[in-house]
Design a protein that fits this description.
five-stranded mixed β-sheet; about 20% strand; about 40% helix; about 375 residues; alpha+beta; four-stranded antiparallel β-sheet
């Protein structure tokens, strides 16, 4: 059995101004509680959970939310302690997401409408305090699975890999605002039965001119994702970042960073989805990736043109491929990245002069795009034991 986790985001359906004001007040208090907990830890790192909860008791929030604020602060403080030499002391922004433990939120249908129940400053949660949410077909598929423990095999979102799926487990949730709209997001975890698989693999190379290449060495088929558009967007963000830094507008700089991160996550989602579809269409059961765990520590050796590699969210793409591959009953395995760009996928000879910019030319006569050749090489390399 393999464990999988997905996140479902539900927009709140036309929350009243009274509700929105209440959420903003709660958000402000949640931020206040989190920051106060950080300050208490800074003054006395040995404070335990009971002491912190007592110190936060005066903040007008349900006790469950104060506990979540304390947990968040402790986690952030511990992370800071590990990197105190390079990081400034943390703080939480005013528009922080409000966090909920998996025991403190509910979903129910009322006359065909999905409603959400969460602890608020209104008092004890009752049926009339549930708020309606908008739901699309995809979210409805997973909500029904959560509430009933069963899946609709006739749904377009059902996959053969879901046969024998375990009962769902509720995860944590959060309430947040984006561009004037309020959203409730939660996680679901479940296990999928692993089935016998073949040993066929495709390789995925991540680079500069081609952001990603998925290749099947057995058939010679490949799928490429060009980096020109992404490079143009990133250069634009870099220019805006320099201008904002010169103006010393730190709030605008943070907003820009969040926007850029969301854009990168979207493109990683698109690429991961297509890579997994390519693997399934190729009849592969394994997706092989280079082990780039040290990629950031190598940035000092890069040329100026290679800085986009550091900027590109390698880990996020890898995480999305791993998650989507698991849902499609595919394994993701790592291979040694040593000189994949210099090895010939046909004869196996490794030479530095094989690669000339974006082209690969081997003395055996084989030639192809350099990133495509690297993806073929990756698909044939033995997997690392991690």
């Amino acid at each position: 059995m393999s464990m999988n986790t997905i996140t479902i985001k539900l927009p709140l359906y036309r929350p009243t101004l009274v509700k929105q004001d209440m959420y903003k007040t709660m958000r402000s208090h949640f931020s206040q509680a989190s920051n106060q907990a950080l300050l208490h830890l800074q003054k006395s790192p040995i404070r335990n959970a009971t002491e912190l909860d007592r110190l936060l008791r005066s903040i007008p929030l349900p006790s469950t939310l104060l506990q979540e604020a304390r947990k968040l602060a402790v986690s952030r403080y511990q992370d800071w302690r590990k990197h105190a030499n390079t990081k400034g002391f943390p703080s939480f922004r005013a528009n922080i997401s409000i966090l909920f433990d998996n025991q403190n939120w509910r979903l129910r249908f009322d006359q065909g409408h999905l409603k959400i129940g969460i602890p608020t400053i209104e008092g004890h949660l009752t049926i009339d305090k549930y708020v309606p949410a908008s739901v699309n077909d995809y979210a409805l598929f997973w909500v029904n699975y959560l509430l009933t423990g069963e899946m609709d095999p006739n749904s377009k979102h059902y996959k053969p890999s879901y046969e024998g799926i375990s009962k769902p487990k509720k995860g944590n949730a959060q309430l947040f605002e984006r561009k004037g709209k309020w959203y409730f997001a939660f996680t679901l975890s479940f296990e999928l039965q692993e089935r016998p698989k073949t040993n066929k693999a495709i390789g995925v190379d991540r680079g500069l001119r081609l952001i990603a290449v998925a290749a099947d060495a057995d058939t010679g088929n490949y799928l490429t994702f060009n980096g020109k558009r992404i490079g143009h967007i990133r250069r634009r963000y870099a220019r805006l970042r320099r201008e904002i830094q010169q103006a010393k507008n730190m709030k605008a700089l943070k907003r820009l960073a969040h926007k850029e991160r969301r854009m990168m996550q979207y493109w990683n989602h698109v690429m991961a989805k297509n890579i997994v579809q390519f693997a399934r269409a190729s009849g592969a059961s394994i997706i092989k990736l280079e082990d780039l765990s040290r990629i950031r520590s190598m940035k000092k050796y890069w040329k100026r043109a290679d800085r986009n590699i550091h900027a590109w969210a390698f880990y996020d793409l890898e995480r999305k491929i791993t998650y989507k591959a698991a849902l499609a009953e595919l394994n993701v395995e790592k291979v040694n990245p040593y000189k994949t760009s210099q090895e010939c996928s046909q004869c196996g000879i490794i030479r530095k002069n094989h690669r000339r910019k974006d082209q690969f030319q081997c003395s055996c006569g084989y030639h192809d795009n350099a990133d495509v050749n690297a993806a073929f090489v990756i698909s044939r390399r033995p997997s690392l034991v991690i």
